[in-house]
Structures are given as structure tokens and as C-alpha cells.
Design brief:
Elements: E1 7-10, H1 22-28, E2 33-37, H2 46-58, E3 62-66, H3 78-98, E4 102-105, E5 108-109, H4 114-136, E6 141-144, E7 152-153, H5 156-165, E8 172-174, H6 175-181, H7 189-203, E9 210-213, E10 215-218, E11 225-229, H8 240-249, E12 254-257, H9 263-279
Parallel strand pairs: 1-12, 2-3, 3-4, 4-6, 8-9, 9-12
Antiparallel strand pairs: 5-7, 10-11
């Protein structure tokens, strides 16, 4: 996704304003991004989608869209696989109409097929989707997200393989999910460096990424996501070491706050990022 600068915003409409004032409110507090949450159902009302597009453009808010949770490209049931492809396609149509250029989705589960076969099935589905999206002239990219449970298709390596294998696929990088999926692996700057080096080495750039960030509580086992928490909760990962690298590498990202405090923590992240830029 073409992003002119690093932007910050919430995962969904802001907490502190009515929906009809969402975009003007985001602009008023200094935020310039938002992820539309289509996680339960995909909006189809053309007037609503046109309104979102106009409001976002007027207020300089860059949009992404999160597709429904009910997606599993490696389901044992062929009908569920086809339904999953249909939901992603519907999300891509809605995203195109509202002016969102990136569609985030959870790819599914390894299930009985295991990792290698599940990954092949997902790649096949993404190839089909890309062909349809390109044929319809939809200006969107597909963003398989790094997922937070070891049973889920969506390790960092998984989503990078998808991006390497299919045109028009650019992963959504969720640092909280990467952190808890492997037992709390992000402990500081060096861990972020390792992740960023892997992404840049395989995609050729760090620019244009849609990034999710929050602090996250792991399950009792220590592996996997239990609950999102606000910045400063103590669960981690910490944002400041990542922000320092964002400044040093001069990336252009859309950073989406998935904290329960949504735009309030998005603004905190922006303030940390801008302070580090001034200090550099």
C-alpha cells in the first residue's frame, strides 16, 4: 500500500466520538489512519461506503479493512474454504468502495492437514483471489495477518511465504501476535531488529506495511494470545524500542492500535514516535 508517511489510528471507530463524527474527530486529535472493522459482517450499503470514503479523504485518514474472523483457507470442509474465499472477496469489494487499499484477514488453522499442506491450500486460494481482484479492477492488496496462536496458520514465516508466492499479497504484521505465539519472544530492540530484518530481506522493503500493535496477555501456557491490554500494562511487548527502529529506518507504515483504548493508545504511540524523531 502506498503510504506517504507513518500514520497512526485505531482498529475501528474511535471510543470518544459518535460514528458520524469519527473522521473529523480523528483529525482533530492528530490521528490520520483507521482500520475499518468488518470482522462480523462486510458492509454492502453503497451509500455508507461512499460516505466513509468521502469522510476519510476529507480528513486525510488512510484506511485499511479487517475482513471477517470466520475465515479458514485450510478448512477440512471444502464448502467452508469456498465460503472463506467469498468473504475475503466481499471484503475486497467493500474496501475498494470505501477507499481502503489493504484487506487484513486471519488465514485459518493448520488442522489435520499440518503446516505444509495448509500453507499450500492458502496460497492456492490467494492465487484465485488475486486473479479475480485484478480482473475486477479492485485497487486492494490482500494482507494475511500474523496470528497469535500456534495452531493458527499465520506465523511470520507463513505470511512471508504467502507474500513471496502471490502477487498483490502484503502481510499485516501484528507484533503482539508474533510476541505471544512463540512464548514472549519480543524482549527488546534486538528482537525487533531480527523481525524487521527478516521482513525487509524477504519483501525487499519495509515501506507500505500495515502494522498492528497492542500489549497482550498470554495464555497460561505462555504460548498464544489470551487478551489485549493497553500500553503500559506490563504484559509487553514494549512499543518504544520498535518506535526507535521506525525512526532510524525511516519507515512509512500504517500503525493500527488494537489496544482496548483504541485511539487513546494510537495517540500515545504517535507521541512516542514523534518525540523520538525530534530527539534524533
Amino acid at each position: 500500500m502506498d503510504i506517504d508517511r507513518t500514520r497512526f489510528g485505531p482498529a475501528g471507530y474511535p471510543l470518544d466520538a459518535p460514528k458520524e463524527e469519527a473522521f473529523t474527530y480523528l483529525r482533530s486529535i492528530g490521528l490520520d489512519g483507521m482500520e475499518y472493522q468488518a470482522v462480523r459482517s462486510v458492509p454492502k450499503n453503497k451509500e455508507l461506503l461512499r460516505w466513509i470514503r468521502e469522510q476519510a479523504e476529507e480528513n486525510d485518514v488512510v484506511l485499511s479493512l479487517h475482513a471477517p474472523y470466520a475465515i479458514n483457507l485450510a478448512s477440512e470442509d471444502p464448502k467452508k474454504r469456498e465460503a472463506s474465499i467469498g468473504r475475503i472477496l466481499s471484503a475486497a469489494v467493500a474496501a475498494h468502495r470505501m477507499g481502503a487499499r489493504h484487506v487484513t484477514f486471519h488465514p485459518g488453522y493448520y488442522g489435520k492437514f499440518g503446516r505444509e499442506e495448509a500453507l499450500k491450500m492458502a496460497i492456492n486460494a490467494l492465487e484465485r483471489l488475486h486473479s479475480v481482484i485484478e480482473g475486477r479492477g479492485l485497487q486492494v492488496e490482500l494482507g494475511p495477518e500474523t496470528t497469535g496462536k500456534p495452531s493458527q496458520l499465520g506465523s511470520l514465516d507463513d505470511v512471508l511465504i504467502m507474500a513471496e508466492s502471490v502477487d498483490g499479497v502484503v502481510p499485516t504484521v501484528d507484533f503482539a501476535h508474533i510476541h505471544v505465539r512463540d512464548g514472549g519472544v519480543i524482549r527488546g530492540r534486538k528482537d525487533y531488529e531480527r523481525i524487521l530484518d527478516e521482513i525487509e530481506g524477504r519483501l525487499g522493503t519495509l515501506d507500505g506495511l500495515v502494522v498492528h500493535f497492542t500489549e497482550v496477555e498470554p495464555t497460561k501456557s505462555g504460548y498464544g494470545e489470551r487478551m489485549h491490554h493497553e500500553l503500559g500494562s506490563g504484559y509487553g511487548p514494549e512499543f518504544e524500542p520498535l518506535a526507535q527502529l521506525m525512526v532510524e529506518r525511516d519507515v512509512r507504515w500504517l500503525v493500527i492500535s488494537e489496544s482496548p483504548l483504541l485511539e487513546r493508545d494510537a495517540l500515545k504511540m504517535k507521541q512516542v514516535y514523534e518525540r523520538l524523531r525530534r530527539e534524533r
